[in-house]
């Protein structure tokens, strides 16, 4: 079985080439509340190792996003070691040019 790439570019999301089952935003709640990728859930970086394996269902395709991509990449590797099909958004929000959900 082929392993899907770890890194996902913004254009892959925008054109529908990649469609995750769940988007996890690793930023702090105050940043998440201001704006986020459509449909994202908030699990802050510091909480992902404790919460992720229990809250993210096995077999789901997970996309992690953060401000610049580095922490999301780190956690995608960690989640893969724990059996989840995880990916990260290259460049994070700093390089995202698509629409965002705003407010709560």
Detailed description of the structure:
It is a single chain. The radius of gyration is 13 Å and the shape is globular. The protein has one domain: Rhodanese-like domain (Oxidized Rhodanese, domain 1). The chain contains 5 helices and 7 strands. The relative contact order is 0.26. It has 104 residues and is α/β, with parallel strands linked by helices. The strands form 2 sheets. A 5-stranded parallel sheet has the order 1-6-5-2-4. The chain has a two-stranded antiparallel sheet with strand order 3-7. α3 runs parallel beside α4.
Shape: globular
Integer tally of domains: 1
CATH architectural arrangement: 3-Layer(aba) Sandwich
Low-confidence stretches: none
List the helices and strands and how they pair.
Elements: E1 7-8, H1 10-14, E2 22-25, H2 29-34, E3 35-36, E4 41-42, H3 45-55, E5 61-65, H4 70-81, E6 85-89, H5 92-95, E7 101-102
Helix pairs in contact: 3-4
